[in-house]
Amino acid sequence: MIKAGIIGATGYAGAELVRLLLGHKDVEIKWYGSRSYVDQAYASIYQNMFQLVDEKCLDDNMEAMADQVDVIFTATPQGLCASLVNENVLSKVKIIDLSADFRIKDVNVYEKWYGIEHKAPQYIGEAVYGLCEVNREKIKQARLIANPGCYPTCSFLSIYPCVKEGLIDPNTIIIDAKSGTSGAGRGAKVDNLFCEVNENIKAYGVAGHRHTPEIEEQLSYAAGEPVLINFTPHLVPMQRGILVTAYASLKKDVTYEEVKAVYDKYYDKEYFVRVLNKDVCPQTRWVEGSNFVDVNFKIDPRTKRIIMMGAMDNLVKGAAGQAVQNMNLLFGLDEKTGLQMAPLFP
Question: Is 81 among the residues known to form the active site?
Answer without folding.
Answer: no
